[in-house]
Design a protein that fits this description.
heterodimer, A: alpha+beta, Chemotaxis protein chec, seven-stranded antiparallel sheet, 7 strands, B: alpha/beta, 60s Ribosomal Protein L30, Chain: A, six-stranded mixed sheet, five-stranded mixed sheet, globular
């Protein structure tokens, strides 16, 4: 299959609206999970040439702590929640009601706290997308990773790289009491997911035009 | 859009996904890899080397970045080395990458497919693989010394390793 995707500015704006709506739901879930401490905002929805991904997306070449959720099936994608080590440790400590650990190795409890955060975020995000595009999405169990952010993002992009030299990435940021945190969520849809989203947006836009005439 | 780069400065240069870069002297070419594979070509006594950051095995006739696919990257690397005056018979290859970070089983093993395709293509061209560090489930950060041909590999939780 060869499907060279290249979104118009209009399509990207519509995709931005769709992801903003899903981010809103994920933010509400995160706010409940952290007792009102943390909220999310959509940073950007971009289409980037493959060769520029690592320089354009500020994921750096350093080791990061991550939680990955995969959407299984053709209409799928990857969701990657990233933290630097310090921020990840701080979140785990806040959720567990304990001091920030200085041990080099993460305990299973700390890993569970982060994995559960990924699960809550991912499920809220996927429920919103399911409602918006009317396609059932089945997320995998979330898993904990410590690796180079660029390596993990690269792996997440493979489904798109197979059919296109441009990749669509949605990036979300986190805030604590208005202050930006060094946490990110990247969502990388497969081509089939992207087509489903674009189809849903076109249908909604068509309905809107019909109603107004 | 940058397809390939010829570098002459003595600095580190990042090689993005699907790119090929040629460097000389003390230039170090760097890349961060997941399932992608870094292939380097170098010739002892020649002050030049090339690194490709290969994403997938087969182009299947698609017109894309030459460095994106193994079957288009290897000929392009050889062309660049030929142009730099490096005799084919003195070249050796080193490989790194091809991990399966998400740990999935099933038919779509991109890292393995990349390694197999690259190994076969190099064999067909008569280029020996001097050293490799491939597979596994961890990402790699690599740095290629164009002068010596050595490839330094860093992985999370492991000490750095140098492929001489």
């Amino acid at each position: 299959m060869t499907h060279e995707t290249c979104a118009t500015t209009g399509t990207l704006e519509l995709l931005h609206q769709l992801f903003a709506s899903a981010t809103h739901d994920a933010s509400a879930a995160m706010c409940r999970w952290t007792n009102g401490l943390i909220t999310l905002s959509l940073d950007e929805v971009r289409e980037i040439p493959l060769e520029d991904v690592c320089t354009e997306i500020d994921v750096g070449e350093e080791l990061l702590t991550m939680v990955v959720l995969s959407l299984e099936g053709e209409v799928g994608g990857e969701m990657v929640l990233t933290f630097d080590n310090h921020n990840g440790r701080q979140l785990a400590a806040a959720l567990l009601g304990q001091e920030v650990s200085a041990e080099p190795e993460w305990t299973n409890l700390e890993k569970s706290a982060l994995t559960e955060t990924g699960n809550i975020l991912g499920c809220a995000y996927m429920n919103a997308l399911t409602r918006l595009i009317d396609v059932e999405l089945v997320p995998s169990a979330p898993y904990f990773l410590q690796d180079y952010g660029a390596s993990v993002l690269q792996q997440a992009l493979m489904a798109q790289a197979m059919t296109s030299d441009q990749v669509l990435i949605c990036r979300t940021g986190f805030h604590r009491e208005g202050e930006e945190l060094n946490w990110r969520v990247f969502f990388v849809p497969t081509d089939a997911m992207r087509l489903s989203m674009e189809h849903a947006l076109r249908s909604a836009s068509h309905l809107k035009t019909k109603k107004s005439t | 859009m940058v397809f390939s780069t010829v570098l002459k400065s003595k600095t580190d240069q990042h090689v993005g996904m699907g790119q090929i870069a040629l460097g000389s002297g003390a230039t170090r070419l760097t890349a961060v890899l997941g399932s992608c594979v870094a292939v380097t070509l170098h010739a002892p006594r020649h002050d030049v080397g090339v690194l490709a950051h290969i994403i997938l095995a087969q182009s299947s006739g698609r017109n894309s970045l030459p460095g994106k696919f193994a079957d288009t990257a290897i000929p392009e690397m050889l062309r660049m080395m030929d142009e730099a005056g490096v005799p084919r018979e003195s070249m050796v290859a080193r490989l790194a990458g091809g991990a399966n970070i998400f740990g999935r089983s099933g038919p779509l093993q991109i890292g393995n497919a990349n390694i197999e395709a690259i190994t076969r293509l190099l064999q067909e061209q008569g280029i020996p693989i001097k050293a490799q560090d491939v597979g596994g489930d961890k990402g790699r950060r690599v740095s290629f010394d164009c002068q010596t041909g050595s490839l330094t590999i860093e992985m999370a939780g492991h000490p750095a390793r140098v492929l001489q």
